[in-house]
Amino acid sequence: MSTSSSFASISQRITTTSTLLLERSRILSLSLAPSASSQTQIVRNLTAIRSDLSKLEDQLALESSGLVVGGRKRGKAAEDDLARQVGELQGQYDRLLDMFGEDGVGREKAKGLSRDVKRSPSPIPVTTPKIEQVETARLPQFNVEPPSPAVDGPFRDIPEDDDDDDDGRAEGDGARTPQDMLSEQQLLMDGTSALDTQMVLILNLLALRTDQDERLNLLSHSIGRQNHLSIQIGSELDLHNEMLEDTDQAMDRTTARLSKARKRLDKVASDAKQYAQ
Q1: Is residue 135 in some structural domain?
Q2: Digit-coded pLDDT (tens) for 51-62
Q3: For the chain, first and last CA: distance in Å?
Q4: Are 112 and 220 in the same domain?
């Protein structure tokens, strides 16, 4: 795997793990217990990141020492830039471990995930061959007089402004070496990856807020529906009460009619007895 693809893979895995740790921190802030599957995924990602960082560090050390067969040795500026990028990735990994160790369970799991700090190998001393001293009598001696300093200014065939512009253009064109251009491109890539990480975090926060808003809207709708059902139940109870009152009034009227009919029957019976006598 090339160095650029290794950087991209590690950066992507760090972004994914950062999202999982932010969700875990939110769950812990709500006094809830994070899921075991999420913690297992976080530990797996951190282990893979630590292994990739160690391999990348070893690869860069081999390339800088020139021990890679068929590899082309980079310039000093490119090596410094790659070392800086590795340091940034290691710092991000350490911050992920700090986030993971917010509670006791994460702190216990993060103990075995710390990076192994590697020492740079000491340079091999190079023995320089001794130069045999030659007797000064055998060497010819020359007496060269130094040139006399110029009194007047240097000869200029063109105006000073044009000369300054040409010097500025020459310096600007000559200062940009391939290593500098590679460093600028790498800085742009780092800035883009940092922006991508921030965008992922912002999108996750927006998704969480949207989910909370939807849940609140659903709760408000449920409360409104329960209120509407309560009003309907109250209306039906009032209707049943009115029906019971109407039934009582009808029973009272029926009882009154039966009483009148009974009185009439009693009167008819008494009259019939009198006529029979």
Answers
A1: no
A2: 988 888 888 888
A3: 134
A4: no
Calpha distance 182→94 (Å, rounded): 27
Which carries the bigger pLDDT value, residue 173 or residue 50? 50
Query: Does some domain include residue 130?
Result: no
CA distances from residue 43 to 53, 110, 201, 262 in whole angstroms, order as listed: 15, 8, 20, 95
Let me know if residue 83 belongs to a domain.
yes
159 — phi, psi (to 5°)?
-60, 160
Query: What is the helix, strand, coil percentage profile of the chain, to 5?
Result: 75, 0, 25
Residue at a domain's end among 117, 149, 164: 117
Identify whether 187 is part of a domain. no
In which residue are the tokens 């021990």 written?
67
Q: How far apart are CA 44 and CA 50, in angstroms?
A: 10
Per-residue pLDDT at 72 exceeds 50: yes
Into how many domains does the chain fold? 2
Of the candidate ranges 22-26, 171-175, 206-210, the one whose mean pLDDT is the lowest: 171-175
Nearest in space to 6 (alpha carbons), one of 83, 73, 65, 86 = 86
Domain that holds residue 273: 214-277
What confidence category does residue 83 fall into, taking pLDDT thresholds of 50, 70 and 90?
confident
Alpha-carbon gap, residue 270 to 4, rounded angstroms: 124
Domain-ending residue, one of 117, 133, 156: 117
How many CA atoms, within 13 angstroms, populate the side-chain half-sphere of residue 166?
Answer: 6
**Residue closest to 115 by CA, chosen among 134, 137, 96:** 96
d(CA 27, CA 90): 26
